[in-house]
Amino acid sequence: MAYPYLHESETRVLSEGFGSPEARTVAGWRALGGYQGIARALEIGREATIEEVKASGLRGRGGAGFPTGLKWSFMPKEARRPHYLLCNADESEPGTFKDREIIRWTPHQLIEGCLVGSYAIGASHCYIYLRGEFFESTQVLARALEEAYGEGLVGSDVMGSGVEIDITLHVGAGAYICGEETGLMSSLEGRRGEPRIKPPFPAAVGAFGMPSTINNVETLAATPHILRHGGEWYRQWGTEKSPGTKLFCVSGHVRRPGNYELPLGFPMMELIEDVCGGLSGGRALKAVIPGGSSVPIMSAEECMECDLCYEGVEAAGSMLGCASVIVMDETTDIVKQVRRMAYFYAHESCGQCTPCREGTAWATRILQRIEDGRGTEDDLETLVEISEQMTGTTICVLSDSLAMPIISSIEKFRDDYLALIRTGERLGAA
Amino acid sequence: MSEARFRNPGWAGNTGDFELTEAEVRGSEYVGRRSPDGGHPSVAPSLPYMLVAKNPEAPLLEGPYRERLGKIRSRYPTARAALIPLLNMAQEIRGHISPATMNEVAGILGLSEAFVRGVATFYTMYNKRPVGRFLVQVCTNISCNLAGADEVLAAFLEHTGTELGETSADGDFTVAEAECLAACGFPTCVQINSRYFEDVSPEDVPALLARLRREVDEGY
After folding, report:
1. Same domain, A38 and A187
2. CA A254 – CA A256 distance, rounded (Å)
3. What's the ipTM?
4. Which of chain A's termini has less CB crowding within 10 Å, N or C?
5. Cβ–Cβ under 8 Å, residues A330 and A253
6. How far is Cα A264 from Cα A247, in angstroms, rounded to an integer?
């Protein structure tokens, strides 16, 4: 079978080169229409490039869903000081594995996206911040970047236009918080990856104190296609508020986990039942986390009518995030999984803000106690209270990210907690 | 569709249901061998820092490594920004970052020792003490956990005869738990030195360890 597994519902824009080793080279990427997007941007100019991306309605794929064209337009019109584009390739959100796929199969797609983004915001230097664990994908990207420099696609004279854009690969050293945009800037500058208070926003005071824009890998990878075909073309997929295609990272208890590129607004149950072949072993659905571990858990009933677009998942009581759909069947021990998430956030808290540093650790200990059968019913109220105090009280949203799964799981799967507390029985655990 | 677990392309002999070789999945032919001097300056901060050969006594800035640091420094507006790339390079050469290495790095970049200590201890990938030839990091975060990552971790501990976070008696393997490695569709994901091994099940572990031991003999 050819990789990736292709379902008839899939639309291949970003994923066209996946599974094809040839697509890694400049020649292979050009054969797929590569480097035509940046060529058109250079032809129509910086303002028009931003307008084209605005017209496409592209929203940031890193989780927040902020409109990309609008974000670019916040940068100063004239580059009196150096401007920087920072590409966030620190993919660490549990459940998310799309950026690595873009980097390892289509490195030039990302390089071209970085050129388009840099040109649009007037940046002459772009840093791609890769997570340290991505050793292999980073080497593929490094070879591709050397190739691109050799062909004059990147550097002091991009494609003979006289425009200067340098790209540097910067590799991190293992810290989830460096995926937060201001934490990423701190880390790039050689500091601990501690987030900073906003304002000032990066477009005013960013990396090295200069105006900066941070975009996710998938966001930047989409821009060459938009430039090449036009913003309207991109709107043929998706909904009015969530245009375009998106890589859905499906993991957990489905027969065919993996990355699937689908139009935004695709029904969740069709993704699970049809595209991913249903639940493994034909078991029943218990819960879904639709956007990476930092969003509220959805019960099976909430999934039934849910469409996977920003507004659709919000209406169903959760968030699309980076579209990392974690599927859990009836055998799932929800308390154990929430405890594992809490452990993760406690491990990754940078420690600057008290509600997060103490709250994540405290919540982990309480959840562990419940899981070990030593919990009380009061513990649930304590967990909710801690979580409420962890929401909106810190510099970044790491502590909110744990509060959401805790509060939502206690609300929707209270019986799982109560069974453990009252009888020591793990509901669902096989 | 059969009930057998669907396997995505991971590693050799285990490229799942797909017609791809391990080299094609990893892109190893395209990448080739990268030179320790860092290659083009744009990619100089991206080199590996988890090799089988580790020498805690080795000098930091000899030959190609000095050249690489020069290239790294040319890519950033401040000296401080070279800190993480330089710590990465130090770990690549020495295998871990000791307090003495932190101080040496501080001296090279003109930063205070306390500042470098603060940064080096913030990031989890810096080994604060020596590790085995192979650092085996098993993801046990949610997606891998749902697929049975706890059993995979237990299998690694059993077959290497070591405790979590410790190194086996022969010095070959250090086994640790990792947070999400961004390979959630290919569970369980295990990072061994610089490589990912995906779709690993407990039954795969003995063969995988044997393969790694062979690679040491072959001078990988």
Report:
1. yes
2. 6
3. 0.95
4. C
5. no
6. 9
The DSSP letter of residue B113 is H
Is there a domain that residue A2 lies in?
no
For A:298-337, CB contacts with B below 8 A are 324, 326, 328, 332, 336-337
The amino acid occupying position A121 is I
Q: Tell me, what CATH number does A411's domain have?
A: 1.20.1440.230
The C-alpha atoms of residue B166 and residue B182 are separated, in whole angstroms, by: 24
Q: Among the residues of A83-215, which ranges form H helices?
A: 98-105, 107-121, 135-150, 181-188
| Distance of alpha carbon B215 from alpha carbon B40, whole angstroms | 29
Q: Which domain holds residue A276?
A: 245-329
Q: Average pLDDT, stretch A313-323?
A: 96
Distance CA B86, CA B103 (A): 12
Backbone φ/ψ region at A285: left (φ over 0), alpha (ψ -120 to 50), beta: beta
Mean pLDDT score of chain A, rounded to an integer?
95
Determine the length of chain A: 430
Q: Which fold has domain B41-120?
A: Arc Repressor Mutant, subunit A (1.10.10)
Interchain CB contacts (distance < 8 Å): A and B: 221
> Tell me: the pLDDT tens digits for B181-218?
999 998 999 999 999 999 999 999 999 999 999 887 76
Q: How confident is the prediction for chain B on average, in pLDDT?
A: 91
Around Cβ A226, how many Cβ atoms within 10 Å? 30
Number of domains in chain A: 3
In chain A, what residues touch B11 (CB-CB under 8 Å)?
none
A9 assigned to some structural domain: no
Rounded distance between C-alpha atoms, residue A178 and residue A92, angstroms: 9
- Contact (CB, 8 A) for B134 and B192: yes
Give me the CATH code for the B134-217 domain, please.
3.40.30.10
The answer to whether the pTM exceeds 0.90 is: yes
Q: Do B83 and A190 touch (CB under 8 A)?
A: yes
Tokens of B169: 């008696």
Domain of residue A117, CATH code: 3.40.50.11540
Q: Please report, for chain B, the start and end positions of each structural domain, with discontinuous segments joined by +.
A: 41-120, 134-217
